[in-house]
Protein 1
Amino acid sequence: MTGEQASTQASPAEELHSILLAHYRFQSLSAGFESGLFEALAEKPGMTKAEIGQKLGLAEQPTRILMLCVTAFGLVRKDGDGYENTAVVEPLTGGKDPVAAALVPYHQHITYKTMGWFWESLKADTNVGLKKVFGEESTTLYERIAVDPVLESAFHNAMGAFSATSSTELVKTLDLSSYTHMLDIGGGRAINATNIARRWPHLQITIIDLPSVAKTANERLAAAGLDDRVRAVGLDAFSDEFPTGADCVLFSHFLEIWSAEGIRKLLQKASRAVGDGAGIFIVTPFQDDDETGPAHAAELSAYFHAVASGEGMVYTPREYEEWMSEAGFTPTGRTPVGELINHIAISGVKGGA
Ligand SMILES: C[S@@+](CC[C@H](N)C(=O)[O-])C[C@H]1O[C@@H](n2cnc3c(N)ncnc32)[C@H](O)[C@@H]1O
């Protein structure tokens, strides 16, 4: 270990302390973000506590507590009587990092309370977090948010911001030149489909998603002038068959939501919907074959189990290839999807390669 590493690396005691108190840090970040504090300081650095309290509509003591928290946690720095943002929160302001900015309300409204039920979810082998926070009748987050506009927009804003980044990388990764019609299963609000349709002007795309999402996707597609080639159909990927007539299928950030059994069913359904020679692309986060990480795979696995579906996790590429083979697709390769998101595209062909 170099001297520099030794001085910057947290000791085990510091690491434990930081984990124990992580919720205070996140809640200070969220309060600073949701109140508009960081945006206000980005626009006018050097505001005093009194000016901040007035701007945020807070009484004196709450202002003092908020400013103590954001300062102590390194989100804001104090210089004389004035405050300014640190580099930590600067990306959350002025649209600089839309993914990070969308993730703050997403974690605040969706994962924060629900992940408090992680251990109970593991013991019960279902998403207790979703049920405890959003109602016992909730089965998946996706169905639950469809009847709650605030949650739906917190989810889709975050997913959309992430998808905007990942789909830019995705269009560079996939070669769709030999296909004419793509099925995009769980295609969300058509962000991938829009980018793919623009990159491959000959391609038709049929998106399948839950009815409320498909409706929004169709509105966005009409606004983008792509509704002659791309349309969304409101279907349940589990209870309905996929439309036939396509010659390639995309599962982007969808299969990992489900159990191995569910994934097998979806891949077999895809196989029934297409003919020999059809392509398949599974775009997904992945965990290392030795099951030691990365951290991103761990976070998402915990989220799928305790919140989103109660059954999914981040699987290894090898598992996907086995399930593809069982469904009649020959795996043809793995391609990293950009550097920003650390996901993979696993491709295959129906029948022989
Ligand atoms: C994580 S998002 C992925 C969106 C998009 N494919 C992407 O890569 O950005 C998962 C999508 O699956 C949809 N979904 C969840 N359950 C579904 C079901 N049973 N049938 C169809 N779509 C479903 C959700 O509405 C959501 O749009």
Note: The radius of gyration is 23 Å.
Protein 2
Amino acid sequence: MPNSNAATNCIVNPKKVAPAAAIIFGATGDLTHRKIVPAFYHLAKNGLLPDGFVIMGFARRPKSDDEFRKDLKEALDKFSHTKPIDEDVWAKLSQHIYYFQGDLPDAESYRKLNEKLKGLPEASIIQGNYLFYLATSPNYFNIVAQNLSEAGLATGSPDQMRRLIVEKPFGEDLASAKELNKSLQAAFPEKNIFRIDHYLGKETVQNLLYFRFANSIYEPLWNRRYIDHVQITVAEKVGVEGRGGYYDTAGASRDMLQNHLFQLLTITAMEPPASLDAESIRDEKVKVLKSIPTPRPEELAKSAVRAQYGGGFIDKKAINAYRQEEKVSPNSLTETYVAVRFEIDNWRWAGVPFYLRTGKALTKQFTEINIVFNRPPSVLFAAAGEAHLRRNSLRIRIQPNEGITVNFNAKTPSKSAAQLVDMKFTYQGGFTDYLPEAYERLIIDALVGESTLFTRSDETEEAWRLVDAVHAAWDLQTVENLPLYACGSMGPVESDLLLERDGRHWVSPKD
Ligand SMILES: NC(=O)c1ccc[n+]([C@@H]2O[C@H](COP(=O)([O-])OP(=O)(O)OC[C@H]3O[C@@H](n4cnc5c(N)ncnc54)[C@H](OP(=O)(O)O)[C@@H]3O)[C@@H](O)[C@H]2O)c1
């Protein structure tokens, strides 16, 4: 029986949002249209935003407030994950939406922005509480923080809210991430900086903490004595789709491994925190990364696989080979696929490999964590031809078809043979509650100052240390081409060999 929750909103956060203005830098861009505005709309629809909550868009092109509202409504109609749009909710929200035309590097724009904010009809309600959202290209992150500081916008009086949300990518290597941390922290205290990794906003990722620490059945098994290895996969079906300019400078390791995959790894592997407060949880996550020694280049030559997609078809749609994509160098050595084996050198995990993989133009779009247990002893069944019983595993599906599947050996009817069968929980079947989008959860948390689901500065730096090591190893290799994999496959043969060398194989994706 599905559980139902009578409460209208299910984004659990007991703190109340104070009246405020969210100032979005990059307000005419794709992210604002696709994610940020639908998130604010759903927060308003669920009664989570106070009356008079202001959204101020900041971008370069000229636009009136009404034109901006119209653009956002079109975006909402297109990208909202619930339909139809509640026109009354939108009408109420949109009357407090404004547009400011400014130039990000121009200090004068911020002085004028300050004046505009102070002169708003809602100024006496929002009382100088501002949430700044950096939805711009990352090369502006520094300068916006600095300009906000110089205009007196980054710090208010002690009872005023001044917070900064920063989008990914956060730096392009350890040195640039440190530099960025330094300049953001010169403008805002660390507790007011909210680095987004939208994976942390996903209900299924948060559920991992519940699954591990709110149950007594799995935690005793969650260690090197019972677990053979762990696999984490973030598979994308799409190619670079017009983002070739950015992607060719980043690749799968910087675009996905440094953030989403390491976030999933730390939550899977962390020790129970002392409490559920932000710092206790983030301390434990950082400890996991610190327990991964920087691998040597000769190790990584074997344990880090990279590849590019060749051309082909996915769902009958032709996809160019990566090197033929728009804005990608024809000699590009940027990887669209990466698979890496890491080990966490601590008491719980020593000797348990964690295999991480991510790629574009793969068979299907899905994210999952597979916990693969030790092989059961076959003493009883060997005589019946079952010399190698198959391993139990836990499939934690982050998206889509969110849920958890346990599999175990069962007797095949009428035969003396074991067969793996599934015991399955799905979010859709288990709950009827509203499943919020990640950005809804993250924005509400930033508004109430709850930073558990945001990445701390030391966490980003530790993750970069490992990604930098992978790149340093690759840079030592003289290659003219990367291995290719077919569009619509699950990656290159080298990735399969990475596990086969250890006597293992990738768990094949299911729906
Ligand atoms: N799009 C996504 O789904 C997505 C997902 C995850 C993370 N992100 C991250 O989010 C950020 C924004 O991405 P996006 O895809 O939304 O980019 P985008 O579509 O290119 O939008 C860029 C925005 O920045 C504004 N802008 C650029 N230069 C400016 C300047 N000098 N002064 C004022 N405004 C300026 C643009 O305004 P004008 O066009 O009016 O100049 C536009 O509103 C990036 O860091 C990206 O990595 C995006």
Note: The pocket of NAP is lined by residues 26-31, 34, 59-61, 102-104, 135-138, 167-169 (CB under 6 Å).
